[in-house]
Design goal:
The chain has 78 residues and is mainly α. 67% of the residues lie in helices and 0% in strands. It has 5 helices and no strands. α1 crosses α3 and α2 crosses α4. The longest helix is centred in the first third of the chain and has 19 residues. The protein is globular, with a radius of gyration of 11 Å. The two termini are 17 Å apart.
């Protein structure tokens, strides 16, 4: 597994933890963030639209962080 794949998985796990802490379902977060529920599922699994183990882009992370009232930098920290 590459470092990039590990990072994508870690970001996804941190997003899922933040979503659970906010007591939101994927469809609820989808509506708040203005993203499709499929996008959120893929980010949480650590995949992009091609199912490759790449992380999400910063625009997507910012939308998710804003919807969760979270600091995106905490998801990116080592």
């Amino acid at each position: 597994m590459t470092t990039q794949a590990v990072t994508a998985k870690v970001i996804g796990a941190r997003l899922r933890t933040a979503r659970f802490a906010a007591n939101l379902s994927v469809p609820e977060l989808s509506e708040l963030a203005g993203l499709s529920h499929t996008t959120i599922y893929r980010v949480e699994r650590g995949c992009d639209d091609t199912e490759a183990p790449r992380g999400p882009n910063m625009a997507t992370l910012r939308k998710l962080a804003d919807a969760l009232d979270a600091d995106v930098t905490t998801w990116l920290a080592a």
